Each structure stands twice: as C-alpha cells, then as structure tokens.
C-alpha cells in the first residue's frame, strides 16, 4: 500500500494520467496494478461508511434472499482487491466485482480465497444466519461493454445493488454521461445504486483522478442518464432545472456518514456523502 499524505498521492496519481487520452486510461490503470508499488486507493479494508450503511440502513436495501432461496446480486465496478465483494457476500448477496486490469483481478482472486473475518472489525462475519453468505467473484472486463456479464450469469433483470466507491471519480469527466447511462441499464427495476461521493471538497480545476465529485455531479448525471451536463469556467457542475427522463435514477436517501476513509476527512470533519438511488 502506498504511503504519504492524500494530497501527495493524488498529485502523483494525476501525473500518471496527464497527457493520456481517456481511451488510454484502462491501460494506465493496468500499469499501476502490474507494478504494484503505488496503489493509493487501496486502504486495506472497505470504507467504514459502507459497513455502516449495510448494518444500519437495511430499510433501503433489497432483501439478500428471496422466499424461494434465490440470492440478490451485488455489483462493485472498480472493486480493487475485493474488500467490498467480501462485505456484500457476508450480508448474503451474490457479489461480483469488476476490474479492467488482469493484475487487479489476480490480486482480488487471491484475497477472496481467504479474506477471514475482515481486516477492520470482523465485517466479513455472516450478518444474518438465515441469509448465509453469498458467492464472491471478481471479473475482468470493461464496465461499458457486455462480455463480462457472462461471468455473473447474464444481465437478467439487472443487479439488485450496485456500489460506486472511487469508480466515477476515477473516470474522465467526458465519460460521465456514459457512466450514468450504464448504471441505469445495469440496475434492476427494484434495485439500488449506492454512491460514496468522494472527493466532494476538491477544486474541480485541479483535475484528476480522482476528479471532484460534489453531490451536484450525481444529481445532474442521473436526471437524464446518457445526456451531457453543464460546467462553469471553473469546472464546477452547474445545477439545472431540467426534467427527469423516463430512464432517470432518483435519489431516495442522502446523508453524511459518521465515518469514512481518511482522505474523505477534511479538518477533522467528514466531507464524503452517501447517496442511494432507484429507478424512477
């Protein structure tokens, strides 16, 4: 795991992508995973905000197991070593992660062989004996393409839970409308998209990854998935009054978590937000 303060890590990460077109970014991420010496996004455990969400906001989540015994499915794009995959499985979901790097998938496969009870606070213990533990699997593929879906059993009606944590903020802003459209396509009719909004405090003009993600970004993108959004001269997303499309995802909950990863804490205060979205 990389050392150094968050700002230095973010500067170094940004420099790795400067001058490279968005089409080259998958290869740049793979280069970092292959080298293995600088993985600043890897905190060694899942974000505590997700642990608390799964434990305390079950009212917002689809049941992990139906009356017929069929498990709901969770998807974590940009899953890294698989901490979130293991956590969702502990809550009873069949859990699938996705990575563009073969080296990342190998790291996740190795980790998921024996993740133990959880590196933070026993978070991988089975949360409910009635639901048991779901399967865990990390897949190699491009989020915006369909080939990897074969490894999940197919799209079916979609995924019941999708979790975005440092995935949208890693994408070049030009790709954001595609992200929103793809999320709407992949989310089941009764499913929820959980977004960990980070970094909310970063000046947009400072670039990325990670790119600034104040709550306005999600709000504007998900009103009309696939449509471009507006920015001012400082790179800040403009809040609009445009109507929601039929494909919109609507926000059903939004809160500042009690705790989060250290880079999401600014001057001793949590700067991250958690938002939960459903189909309109």
TrEMBL record:
Keywords for the protein's UniProt record, in alphabetical order: Methyltransferase, Phosphoprotein, S-adenosyl-L-methionine, Transferase
Pfam family, one: TPMT
Highest taxon of the lineage: Eukaryota
Any one biological process term the GO annotation gives: methylation
One MF annotation (Gene Ontology) recorded for this entry: S-adenosylmethionine-dependent methyltransferase activity
PANTHER family, per the entry: CYSTEINE SULFINATE DESULFINASE_CYSTEINE DESULFURASE AND RELATED ENZYMES, PTHR32183
Name the record gives this protein: S-adenosyl-L-methionine-dependent methyltransferase
Annotated source species: Pseudopithomyces chartarum
